[in-house]
Design brief:
The chain is α+β, with helices and mostly antiparallel strands. The protein has 3 domains: 116 residues, DNA ligase, ATP-dependent, N-terminal domain (DNA ligase i, domain 1); 203 residues, DNA ligase/mRNA capping enzyme (D-amino Acid Aminotransferase, Chain A, domain 1, 2-Layer Sandwich); 145 residues, Beta Barrel (OB fold (Dihydrolipoamide Acetyltransferase, E2P)), CATH 2.40.50.140. Helices cover 37% and strands 22% of the residues. It contains 21 helices and 23 strands. The longest helix is centred in the middle third of the chain and has 17 residues. The radius of gyration is 25 Å and the shape is globular. The protein starts with a helix and ends in a 9-residue tail after the last helix. The structure holds adenosine monophosphate.
Length: 596
């Protein structure tokens, strides 16, 4: 496919705010793309160049792109930076500026019949993989050649792809809907496509198989080592006693709930790779866990699911989540591995010696896990007690709290208790200490805007506008503005932290009422944990917007608790969960204490 054809689809996607229209455009795009470029078309549409787990980083900061533009256009870097400030974005400038073609570019890029999608991808991959001495020079040269070969509109989108600022209105779910529409004219295949995508985490691969072998081929997509599986998620209830009714099995496993970071470990012979909840490769951060899995798992190949917690082995005590965050680093990894020791609490087995275990029941998976895991200081099976009544679950829960844990995760032991990738399933239900104390559960919300600070806060932000994720519509809907709970230091650092994600208009896929529009906009990137006093109906917020009542759901008296860097925007609390919490709250008024 010609890159200019893809660009015309991007323009159409950006012109509409209607999800249905986007789905139709994407279905048409799917039909136009060929088997050889459909994967790239998917990555580009999502603003990336490869699946997230593939560790492909272009390594192009704004400064490098400015330098490349300066060199290719023969202008001065200072002048380019000034123009960027005037024009607002680098991509707008790249579209405007003239970049003369030079014969020497022929070595970097083929341009006989105009740029093809593969040419752009190939050049971006060469930029990403350039390493060692002189790599920056090479990156700039390839980018310069690519921009010189492109026309005005193409340059606009290439620069957005290169700087990681390409966000069209379509998210992953809309793209999957588009694929379903392309083959059947409806969304009927979305569940199958979603399951395949959550199993292999490569939307380009799913699209390619769909194109080549149809929906029956997609159904055959299996787990593979070194491709993360999207983690299964938990549900919440209003009362502990409800757990027994919701989980349809006589025996319920009450597992310890740890406050750490979800990690999926892939063991492939002696090689071990670790993936975060965002499905990024974080192997480098935990050399101690890598070694523990390598030596403590008696299997040639295996995929484990579990939680890494900061742990004081001497005292046998669990440390707070904030402690674990010190291990999120590129440098001084070894030093911190010693000062902040961790323990990998493994609670599931998804793959063993060449076979997927996801269709096995929870008790079967757990039995296999027990057989292959040799416990050590750094690696152990999650604690678990099988219960048959709410009283027994409460006992397990209280005993966990005494040992410094967060609560319990109750898991079905029924014969159909399969591992459901990416699904928020009623087979797993959490119960946390906050619920018991009569406090509300916290929400994980995405920052999409900020108001300007006044008085003591002038020059900075007054509050941040937070949104929940509406899975069905694949959009972000506002729930509250959060201005309290931040330390002075955090508040001061907010503008700098959010700056790289600043936009000059409302981000696509975000629904905001006019009256709630903030002064600053950010593309959905950061997730924050927020505590509130109750959920109310409000004309100011769009979460579960009711057109008849002209009101949505809002969180009252919200308070910042902590950053959730391990969660992606799509892993924020969903609009559906908030609707359920609203209904549960109606049943039990005391759940939400009125706060001042
Ligand atoms: P929350 O983040 O509060 O929605 O709780 C769900 C998260 O708890 C999961 O995504 C895991 O990261 C974490 N977790 C801690 N212990 C367990 C466990 N035993 N089983 C499953 N998830 C657990």
């Amino acid at each position: 496919m010609k890159f200019s054809t893809l660009v015309s689809f991007f323009e159409r996607l950006e012109e509409t705010a209607s999800q249905n229209e986007m789905t139709e455009i994407l279905a048409e795009l799917f039909g136009k793309a060929s088997e050889s470029d459909i994967d790239i078309v998917c990555y580009f549409t999502l603003g990336t160049i490869a699946p997230g787990y593939a560790k492909v980083d272009l390594g192009l900061g704004e400064k490098t792109v400015i330098a490349a533009l300066a060199r290719a256009s023969g202008r001065d870097e200072e002048a380019i930076s000034r123009w960027v400030r005037d024009r607002g974005t680098l991509s707008a400038l790249a579209a405007d500026i003239e970049i003369p073609w030079k014969e020497e570019y022929r070595d970097s890029i083929a341009v006989e019949n105009g740029l093809r999608v593969e040419d752009v991808h190939d050049a971006l991959m060469r930029i990403a993989t350039a390493s060692g001495s002189g790599s920056m020079k090479k990156k700039k040269a390839v980018l310069g050649a690519l921009l010189a070969a492109a026309d005005e509109k193409e340059r606009y989108y290439i620069t957005r792809l290169a700087t990681g600022t390409m966000r069209l209105g379509a998210g992953e779910r809309t793209l999957l809907d588009g694929m379903s529409h392309a083959v059947s004219g409806s969304k009927e295949h979305r569940p199958v496509l979603e399951h395949a995508y959550y199993t292999c985490s490569d939307i380009g691969h799913v699209a390619n198989i769909l194109k080549r072998s149809g929906i029956s081929g997609v159904k055959r997509i299996r787990v593979s080592l070194n491709r993360p599986i999207r983690p299964m998620l938990t549900q919440r209830v209003g009362e502990l006693a409800e757990i027994v009714g919701k989980i349809s099995s006589e025996r319920i496993a009450a597992e310890e709930k740890y406050d750490g970071e979800r990690i999926e470990a892939h063991k492939d012979g002696d090689a071990v790779r670790l993936f975060s909840r965002r499905l990024t490769d974080i192997t480098g951060q935990f050399p101690d866990v890598v070694e523990a899995v390598r030596s403590g798992i008696a299997a040639t190949t295996a995929i484990l699911d579990g939680e890494v917690v900061a742990y004081n082995a001497g005292g046998g005590t669990y440390q707070p989540f904030q402690q674990l965050m010190h291990r999120r680093r590129k440098y001084h990894v070894k030093e911190y591995a010693e000062t902040v020791p961790v323990r990998y609490m493994v609670f599931d087995l998804l793959y063993l010696d060449g076979n997927s275990k996801m269709c096995f029941s929870y008790p079967e998976r757990r039995a296999h896990l027990k057989e292959i895991l040799t416990p050590s200081e750094l690696l152990t099976l999650s604690g678990m007690k099988v219960c048959t009544s709410a009283e027994e679950i409460r006992d397990a829960f209280l005993s966990n709290l005494k040992r410094g844990l967060e609560g319990v995760i109750c898991k079905s032991c029924a014969t159909d208790s399969m591992y459901e990738p990416g699904n928020r399933s009623w087979q797993w239900i959490k119960w946390k200490k906050e619920y018991e104390n009569g406090l509300t559960d916290t929400l994980d919300l995405v920052i999409i805007g900020a108001t300007a600070g006044k008085g003591r806060r002038s020059g900075g932000f007054g509050s941040v506008l937070c949104a929940a994720y509406n899975e069905e519509e694949d959009v972000f809907q506002t729930v509250c503005g959060v201005g309290t709970g931040f330390s002075d230091e955090e508040l001061e650092g907010l503008p700098e932290k959010l700056e790289p994600h600043t936009l000059d208009r409302k981000p696509s896929r975000c629904q905001v009422r006019n009256r709630t529009e903030p002064e600053f906009w950010f593309s959905p990137e950061y997730v924050v944990e927020v505590l509130g006093s109750e959920i109310t109906k409000s004309p100011a917020h769009t979460c579960n917007w009711d057109e008849g009542e002209k009101r949505g759901l809002a969180l009252r008296f919200p308070r910042f608790i902590r950053w959730r860097p391990e969660k992606s925007p799509e892993q924020a609390t969903t609009a559906e969960e908030i609707a359920r919490m609203y209904r549960q709250q109606g049943n039990r008024e005391t759940r939400w204490p009125r706060r001042r």
